[in-house]
């Protein structure tokens, strides 16, 4: 019992040959075994990986079978699916661009090529952020007119139509913002003329403007149509007649539009080989260059000598193919921020739009900042979201410069601070921060109020200069229950600060992110995957480190203009590479105004003379959109709901801009004795929102199967070996 | 040597099985806690977390009349919520509003019964005040999820249930979703 090991060691048999052999053998055995286990594990892992990756690679092809929707289409309710899709034989587009908004009117002509009357569905892929203003569909004597109406009215009409057995239905498609409208009873060989009016933003990045119109018109249709038409003169004649009739009734519309094939429908070839006409009036308000189209050949004509107004059409020889129309132009680089202005007069009200264009980026100067990062480490961030958040934060920390001071707040249901106050971004502090970030894990609940108020109240580092801007960068998935409480906190917060939100994960609460950034006069960015982190985060950090003009203020003669409505109500900062729009409504035309603000180096002042003679379309609509947004935001700070609803509705109806309280309804009317009578069939158009679909499979079954297979293998192999052994035994030792 | 392969394989196999069955077991266990907290929520009219460190709370109850099934829906569509029950995805997580109500769940745990849901089935959705609304299944679609986005009509008060497709696929990756749309009655 009491014999110790030490005593044993005195027995010296280790040098013996026998021991060495034994030892060697034993070691080999263990080596082999551990190798085997390792190999098995490795193969298991590889198998799981392989099974998953093959799963992922498979379904790519199946998705592309959907009919591509690149441009307007009319889907006929034809029994043969191959003959359902129908493309316009003619498209005429009139576009008026004022600064950053485009007012588009597209007139498309479709023909029912079939010998029977059919029901059709009109589809149009609206560009992102486009707002429909009006819709007019003409089929023979029938006219469908789409307008924005109060929701209650729309509902009554909708129910009426439904109770009379007239179906008003819609289609859901895998396409963002697809506008859909049903058209009943399209006679054979009749034409359908659809006029759609909408507003869309012009995208602007790095001094370059882009406008993309979804006009794709494929040649497929023409080839199909021209054959039966030329073979069958009877059909051709009816088509011709219909064309003439529609041309007659659409006289007024046509007067506004440019030359077209409809005006001279006597030759069918002209219908079959028709081509789009695109007329664009481009008013940039500031000097531009390099107008070009990557998709089509264009012809342009300057409207004045200031390099800011052009008229653009398609080159006559240009045949439209199945491409969207793309137009781009370039800002004439300047060292000063440029401001363009447009005015629209609607009845006796004046709408003014100011668009600020930032100066050249390379002039950017870095400012001193007192920056606080808030990172969400709640349970909802678990997994890839947390990894992305950490990667983003690590990247952001590295982009700080020596003028900055910073701090990090991590929160779930408790709050954890890196430092008590903000500290200078010196290398030892950054090292501490990196350690702090690496140790963060996602768990627990979301209590956002405390870290946010903490950040708002936090003391500035003593080493930091007084002018340093307090920036708060909030990294979260926005899964919060008390959105309104947080907004109120931001709304009521005093002091000069800017709040930026970084939305993480596949499905961040986008509404919260955008609104929080808006209330905090900052910007937002969404990071959807790990691949996004590097690019998007460094762009974002660069952007917020260089505001071009801060604290912008408008000064308008208050003696003359007593009732001004300016949106956005609190003017955000102007950043490099991002223009800023301000919409104003006034009783009298605004002829001049002054602007003040701060650049990094000096105070900024500019006086603007506005030429209000020329009326630009779309300004009032933009203003109305901004007003509705602002009214809905006021609900957050406790505005009276009924009052807001009333105001939103009146604005929406007056300016024909969709809102939560109104809907876009298309009403069918029939022409009788020259009068248009409303028929009780109603078609409702909808606005859609993209929602991210989460991963909805646990995948436990695969792993379970694998485990079971292993167990089975062991027992089976045992049985096989046993049987084999028995066989051998039987054969050799009978 | 041979003697050691067998037990190690046995151990690995059973470990894999155990780890795999932990996921549905967790899903089942949490359901008990969640349904308890849901009853508490109904009784006290408060948001009650199913366990103190939870990041979510029950917001509604789905019941499928024909299938005699009930399921308490949690708030949020993030992976940690979906591990415990089906979750309502923001911003469509408000019951009794004019907006749609969108619920996602795992095809191999809480929403495994969705393939039994048929057209015209009646689904009732109860909010925390005990008021319930009836919905009727109007469409069942299989959509491509490569983009990860689903367009939803914002002004339509419908109920939308999302799960992965196909149902009998054992893996955890899927590029298709099974989407059930039900109209408010």
TrEMBL record, chain A:
Pfam family, one: VWA_3
Domain named VWFA: residues: 370-544
Keyword Membrane attached: yes
PROSITE patterns: VIT (PS51468), VWFA (PS50234)
Gene3D superfamilies: von Willebrand factor, type A domain (3.40.50.410)
Membrane-spanning ranges: 30-51, 702-722
Keyword Amino-acid biosynthesis set for record: no
Coiled-coil blocks: none
Keywords attached to this entry: Membrane, Transmembrane, Transmembrane helix
Annotated VIT domain residues: 72-200
Signal peptide interval: none
PANTHER family noted in UniProt: VON WILLEBRAND FACTOR A DOMAIN-CONTAINING PROTEIN 5A
Record-given protein name: Marine proteobacterial sortase target protein
Organism: Colwellia hornerae
């Amino acid at each position: 019992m009491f014999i110790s090991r030490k005593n044993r060691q005195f027995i010296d048999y280790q040098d013996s040959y026998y021991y060495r052999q034994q030892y060697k053998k034993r070691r080999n055995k263990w080596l082999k075994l551990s190798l085997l286990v390792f190999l098995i594990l490795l193969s298991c892992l590889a198998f799981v990986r392989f099974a998953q990756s093959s799963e992922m690679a498979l379904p790519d092809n199946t998705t592309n079978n959907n009919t591509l929707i690149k441009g307007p289409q009319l889907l006929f309710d034809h029994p043969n699916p191959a003959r359902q899709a129908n493309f316009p034989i003619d498209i005429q587009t009139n576009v008026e661009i004022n600064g950053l908004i485009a007012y588009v009117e597209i007139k498309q002509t479709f023909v029912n090529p079939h010998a029977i009357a059919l029901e059709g569905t009109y589809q149009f892929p609206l560009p992102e952020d486009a707002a429909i203003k009006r819709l007019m569909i003409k089929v023979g004597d029938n006219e469908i007119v789409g307008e924005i109406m109060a929701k209650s009215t729309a509902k009554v009409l909708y129910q009426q139509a439904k109770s009379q057995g007239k179906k008003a239905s819609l289609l859901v498609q895998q396409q963002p913002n697809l506008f859909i409208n049903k058209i009943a009873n399209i006679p054979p060989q009749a034409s359908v003329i659809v006029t759609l009016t909408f507003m869309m933003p012009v995208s602007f990045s790095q001094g370059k403007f882009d406008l993309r119109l979804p006009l794709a018109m494929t040649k497929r249709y023409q080839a199909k149509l021209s054959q039966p038409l030329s073979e069958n003169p009877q059909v051709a004649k009816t088509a011709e007649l219909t064309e003439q009739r529609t041309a007659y009734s659409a006289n007024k519309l046509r007067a506004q539009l440019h030359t077209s094939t409809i005006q001279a429908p006597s030759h069918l070839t002209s219908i079959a080989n028709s081509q789009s006409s695109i007329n664009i009036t481009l008013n940039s308000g500031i000097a531009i260059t390099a107008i070009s189209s990557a998709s089509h050949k264009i012809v342009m004509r300057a409207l004045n000598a200031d390099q800011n107004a052009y008229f653009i059409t398609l080159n006559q020889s240009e045949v439209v193919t199945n491409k969207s129309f793309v137009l781009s132009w370039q800002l004439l680089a300047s060292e000063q921020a440029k401001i363009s202005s447009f005015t629209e007069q609607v009845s006796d009200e004046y709408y003014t739009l100011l668009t600020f264009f930032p100066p050249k980026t390379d002039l950017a100067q870095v400012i001193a900042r007192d920056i606080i990062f808030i990172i969400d480490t709640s349970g909802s961030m678990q997994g890839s979201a947390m990894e992305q958040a950490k990667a983003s934060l690590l990247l952001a920390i590295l982009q700080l410069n020596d003028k900055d001071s910073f701090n990090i707040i991590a929160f779930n249901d408790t709050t954890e601070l890196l430092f008590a106050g903000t500290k200078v971004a010196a290398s030892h502090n950054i090292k501490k921060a990196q350690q702090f970030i690496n140790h963060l894990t996602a768990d627990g609940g979301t209590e956002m109020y405390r870290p946010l108020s903490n950040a708002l109240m936090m003391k500035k580092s003593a080493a930091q200069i007084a002018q340093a801007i307090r920036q708060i960068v909030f990294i979260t998935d926005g899964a919060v229950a008390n959105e309104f409480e947080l907004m109120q906190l931001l709304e009521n917060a005093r002091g000069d600060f800017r709040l930026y939100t970084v939305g993480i994960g596949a499905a961040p609460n986008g509404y919260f992110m955008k609104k929080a950034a808006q209330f905090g006069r900052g910007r937002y960015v969404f990071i959807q995957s790990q691949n996004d982190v590097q690019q998007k985060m460094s762009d974002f950090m660069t952007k917020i480190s260089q505001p071009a003009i801060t604290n912008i203020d408008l000064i308008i003669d208050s003696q003359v203009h007593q009732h001004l409505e300016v949106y956005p109500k609190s003017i955000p900062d102007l950043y490099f590479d991002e223009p800023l729009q301000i919409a104003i409504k006034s009783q009298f035309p605004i002829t001049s105004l002054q602007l003040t603000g701060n650049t990094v180096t000096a105070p900024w002042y500019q006086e603007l003379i506005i030429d209000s003679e020329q009326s630009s379309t779309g300004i009032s609509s933009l203003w109305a959109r901004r007003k509705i947004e602002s009214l809905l935001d006021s609900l957050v700070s406790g505005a009276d709901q009924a009052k807001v609803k009333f105001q939103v509705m009146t604005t929406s109806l007056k300016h024909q801009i969709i809102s939560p309280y109104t809907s876009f309804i298309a009403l069918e009317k029939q022409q009788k004795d020259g009068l248009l009578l409303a028929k009780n069939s109603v078609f409702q158009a909808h606005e859609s929102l993209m929602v991210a679909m989460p991963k909805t499979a646990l995948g436990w079954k695969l792993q379970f199967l694998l485990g079971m297979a292993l167990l089975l293998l062991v027992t089976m192999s045992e049985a096989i070996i046993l049987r084999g052994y028995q066989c051998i035994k039987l054969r050799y030792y009978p | 040597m041979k003697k050691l392969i067998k037990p190690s394989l046995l151990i690995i196999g059973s470990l894999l099985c155990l780890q795999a069955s932990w996921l549905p077991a967790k899903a089942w266990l949490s359901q008990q806690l969640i349904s308890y907290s849901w009853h508490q929520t109904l009784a006290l009219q408060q948001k009650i977390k199913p366990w103190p460190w939870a990041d979510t709370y029950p917001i509604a109850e789905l019941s499928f009349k024909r299938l005699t099934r009930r399921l308490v829906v949690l708030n949020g569509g993030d992976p940690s919520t979906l591990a415990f029950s089906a979750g309502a995805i923001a911003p469509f997580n408000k019951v009794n509003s004019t907006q749609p109500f969108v619920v996602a769940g795992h095809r191999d745990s809480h929403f495994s019964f969705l393939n039994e849901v048929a057209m015209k089935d009646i689904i009732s959705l109860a909010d925390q005040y005990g008021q319930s609304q009836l919905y009727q299944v109007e469409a069942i679609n299989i959509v491509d999820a490569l983009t990860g986005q689903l367009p939803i009509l914002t002004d339509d008060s419908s109920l939308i249930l999302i799960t992965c497709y196909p149902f009998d696929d054992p893996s955890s990756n899927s590029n298709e979703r099974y989407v059930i749309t039900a109209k408010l009655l």
